[in-house]
Structures are given as C-alpha cells and as structure tokens.
Specification:
heterodimer; A: alpha/beta; 5-stranded mixed beta sheet; about 15% strand; B: about 110 residues; two-stranded parallel ribbon
C-alpha cells in the first residue's frame, strides 16, 4: 500500500468542519541548496520540531495559530518534556517524546561519534498555523535567526 | 523528516527523509530506542549522500505488516480538537508550575 495522501484527506475534513479551504504551500521552483562541507561526525546539529513539545514549567502552546517558539535545552531531562497539539494523537508522544522530538536518540548519536555535537538548545513550535504567510514572514525568519545564533552546521526538521 | 509524503513533495524542501508511519511518529515508535536510532541514522546520513535539491529518501521501515493503520487513517478522518487560544497544558501540575514561575522571561516567545 502506498503512502497516505494527506492533502485531499485534510481538504475534505476542513470542508466538512466548515473551515475555509486551506491554501497548501506548493513550491515548484528548484529547492535552495547548501552543501554540507564536512562529515556529520564533525558537525554541530540543531533541531526544530512542530509537535507542540514544551518543558514542564514553560507556558504551554495554545492551539489557535500559535507562532511562538519554545527553547529546549539540549541537556533537558526527557521526563520533563510535555506534548500538546490539536491535530494528532498525543498518547505515544506523551509516553516517549522521542517519537516527535528525538532528543535521546541525538544525544546517543553524539556519544557514538556519528554526530560531532548538538546545538546547546533546540526549538519547538506548535504547527497547524493556518496562515502560511505568517510562517514565511514571521516564524521562519525567527527560527533561522536562532540557528545562526546557535552556530549550527545543519538542522533536523521534525514536523508532525 | 516527514510522514506525509504528498505534503513534503508539495513544499519541496532541499532534503527529506520519508518514514511511512502514522502521524505523531515522525521519528519512530515509542520506547523502541534501537529502531529510533536506525531511523535517524538513515535520515541524517542523507546530509552526506544527497547531491541534488529536492531529494527524498524513503526509509525502509514499516509500522506493521498489514498496514491496516492506513485504511483507518482514511476512514476515520480527523475531528481536530477545538482551537483554544489559551495555553493547553498536558496536565494541571504543568499549569501550576508555569503560572507560579512569574512572567515569562521572553515576552515574544513566552519561553
């Protein structure tokens, strides 16, 4: 069985719920390209994830076009990670946040020498932002600014 | 990483690794660290092997033998929780801790 086609499925759901049609982002031009000029074992990796992960003690995300960002320290205790989201079944993410925020996996890959190191912090947001313009003009530039501050060589993007 | 191949192909990022798992499991199954490790090695190694923008690597892992979850994903649709504009805590203890912590240090991102 091939991959699930989510675009028609979500379009139908939105219509059924009475939402106006979502304008799916479609980029037809060739994607931008930055070659990675050194091996992963010498790279510092950043991560950004949209599954609604926050740390206990932080203000949680809300569910209506939330474009705020949470900063997750790379040495966070995994037990303190929380998940909130309106659009996916949270039970497995709350059992083991690594299914949408692979923090333990990345730390292990550094110990094993597969990765050179990790950014001192990672970044999370809510996703499900109805306006792609707000993502392009507001959220994305704030994220890339943070990556530059963090001095990362590459970033792992983990959407949900 | 992606578990939604059609959405990712439409967005057309420079590099992508597709894991054919149900949404909410972009980097693996819960409490299966060996599988989670294999998935990330498969995805991250693309940084060293991909040479063309728009490449998508299909990772060779299956959620289950029968793939019944896909039929279910189509049949059930998703109702989507109401979209509240107030913080939605995982539990009340989180709310108490966040509210006792005083105002957030960053007024922009509220972290």
């Amino acid at each position: 069985m091939g991959p699930v086609d989510y675009i028609p499925r979500i379009r139908d759901n939105y219509a059924r719920l009475g939402y106006k049609a979502y304008n799916w982002v479609e980029h037809r031009d060739t994607a931008p390209w930055a070659p990675l000029c050194k091996p992963l074992s010498e790279c510092r990796l950043g991560m950004v994830a949209s599954g609604g992960i926050y740390v206990a003690g932080q203000v949680a995300f809300h569910h209506k076009d939330d474009t705020s960002i949470r900063e997750i320290p790379a040495d966070v205790d995994t037990k303190d990670l929380r998940a909130t989201h309106f659009a996916y079944d949270l039970s497995d993410a709350r059992t083991d946040p690594n299914v949408v925020f692979p923090i333990d996996t990345l730390r292990r890959l550094v110990r094993e020498g597969f990765l050179g190191g990790l950014s001192s912090r990672f970044h999370t947001f809510m996703g499900g932002i109805y306006s792609s313009r707000r993502v392009t003009e507001d959220l994305a530039p704030r994220l890339t600014g943070r990556f530059r501050e963090d001095g990362v060589d590459a970033v792992l993007l983990v959407p949900v | 990483m992606t578990s939604a191949l059609d959405i990712t192909r439409a967005v057309n990022p420079p590099r992508a690794a597709f894991l054919d798992f149900p949404l909410g499991h972009t980097t693996g199954k819960p409490r299966e660290p060996e599988l989670q490790r294999e998935i990330l090695i498969g995805a991250l190694s693309s940084f060293e092997t991909m040479t063309a923008p728009g490449s998508v690597k299909e990772l060779p892992f299956r959620w289950s033998e029968d793939e019944g979850w896909k039929a279910k994903a189509f049949a059930e649709g998703d109702e989507r929780a109401a979209r509240h504009d107030t913080p939605q805590y995982q539990d009340e203890e989180d709310r108490r801790r966040a509210e006792q912590g005083g105002p957030p240090s960053c007024p922009v991102c509220r972290s």
